[in-house]
Design brief:
Helix content: 10-25%
Organism: Cylindrospermum stagnale PCC 7417
Number of domains: 2
Strand content: 35-45%
Number of helices: 9
Subcellular location: Cell membrane
Membrane topology: Multi-pass membrane protein
Structural class: alpha+beta
Pfam families: FIST, FIST_C
Largest sheet: 6 strands, mixed
Number of strands: 25
Oligomer: single chain
InterPro entries: FIST_C (IPR019494), FIST_domain_N (IPR013702), UCP018953 (IPR016741)
Length: about 400
């Protein structure tokens, strides 16, 4: 077993931080037959006042060279019986450990002030992160919420590390304005046992590892794809050479009464990320919010830049659409990867707006995931923004579940 990749996850709902840490360390370490090379720790915002005690308590019980983690409005883990569990708004800790033979691991922390300009060469980003671009690293990022630099960082990583997978989430606190925490432990250097309040902590994994992603944005398309024929920054001025608001009103008029009700508060725009794909399907769109409309000009403002020539399609989001979207992507993943080496672990980064609040019952996304990828440890947290790729480029999402599925690179 020693030369095989091994992962373990443990979850504890003890209300005492000491007991919770002892519990997850004991469970996770006993599940491995070789020493852990990395750790990922997620702590519920119910422990907000005790964030500073987490790393010292962990160090007392656990020896792991590199570890990152953060706070979340909820945490996700695997129970002793091997079942996934999403713990929302209650004290909980989720610890993932991995033994990674043949994998180079680098840990880093960057703040927005350190980021190169977006017109800088790739070398500026490579110097900042401290990781060579080949073999392509797989990045796990945990960022402070409302971090102004996260979108620039994602763009920079895509530019400097072509072929890399980037996924993760933004730390969340308990409710609006809740304090967040980022944790970074590099036993080899100056970052040993650090608690951060801002920036991004990350792991770069390269070599004998593949991380594949499922990015479930929780929407279903309505109507047909349309082409942007005139726009300015994030404002759509023409769709198929027609007034956007007129096009939208006609579309809503063609919907069922239930869909019309839903469109009043859960209408989104999906921007096609592949300009040349002839038949667009679910998963080909980057979902963005509608920020407002200008009735006099008939224009629509969305939460991203849009340019003439791009295709978009209106979408609706509700619990049913969310469930169907994730199931469709899981089915597609399973059929595309059936001949590859078995997955050994998964990470889940899900929006605070999903979970029991969306579905009316707990553990929905994680149990659906387990139906398709069973018997692998799953760890993660509830984010205030989710990081994952759509059509080869990495974005910050909302209302999304991002899964990272890990396997050996054979």
């Amino acid at each position: 077993m020693a030369d095989q990749m091994q992962w373990a996850n443990a979850l504890s709902t003890h209300h005492s931080l000491e007991a919770a840490v002892a519990d997850v360390v004991q469970q996770a370490v006993s599940s491995l037959t070789a020493p852990a090379d990395i750790g990922l720790i997620f702590i519920s915002s119910a422990f907000t006042s005790e964030y500073s005690r987490l790393l010292p308590l962990l160090a007392d019980k656990l020896s792991v060279p590199m570890l990152i983690g953060c706070s979340g409005g909820g945490v996700i883990g695997t129970t002793v019986k091997g079942e996934p569990q999403e713990i929302e708004a209650e004290p909980a800790i989720s610890l993932t450990l991995a033994h990674l033979p043949g994998v180079n691991v680098q840990v880093f922390h960057v703040v927005s002030e350190e980021l190169p300009d977006l017109d800088s060469p790739p070398e500026a980003w490579i110097d900042l992160i401290g990781v060579p671009p080949s073999p392509a690293p797989q990045f796990i990022l945990l960022s402070s919420s409302f971090s102004s630099g996260i979108k620039d960082l994602l763009q920079g990583l895509d530019f400097a590390y072509p072929g890399s997978v980037v996924l993760g989430g933004q730390a969340s606190g308990g409710g609006m304005g809740g304090r967040i925490a980022l944790f970074c432990n590099d036993a080899r250097g100056s970052q040993h046992q650090r608690l951060y309040r801002e920036g991004t902590v990350g792991l770069a994994l390269s070599g004998n590892i593949v991380v594949e992603t499922i990015v479930a944005q929780g929407c279903r398309p309505i109507g047909e794809p349309l082409q942007v024929t005139k726009s300015e920054r994030n404002i759509i001025l023409e769709l198929d050479e027609k007034v956007p608001l007129v096009v939208l009103r006609d579309l809503i008029g063609s919907l069922s009464e239930q869909e019309r009700m839903l469109a009043q508060h859960s209408l989104f725009v999906g921007v096609a990320m592949d300009g040349f794909k002839p038949c667009l399907q679910q998963g080909d769109f980057l979902i963005r919010s509608i920020l407002g409309v200008d009735p006099s000009a008939g224009a629509i403002a969305i939460g991203d830049r849009v340019r003439p020539g791009q295709r978009l399609q209106f979408h609706l989001r509700d619990a049913q659409a969310s469930a169907e979207d994730l199931e469709l992507l899981l089915e597609r993943y399973q059929s595309q990867h059936s001949t590859e080496p078995s997955a050994v672990a998964a990470l889940m980064f899900t929006c605070l707006g999903r979970g029991a609040g969306l579905y009316g019952k707990p553990n929905f996304d994680s149990e659906l995931f387990r139906r398709y990828l069973n018997h692998i440890p799953l760890g993660g947290f509830f984010c205030s923004g989710e990081i994952g790729p759509v059509s080869g480029s990495t974005f910050l999402h909302g209302y999304t579940s991002v899964f990272g599925i890990c396997r050996q690179n054979e």
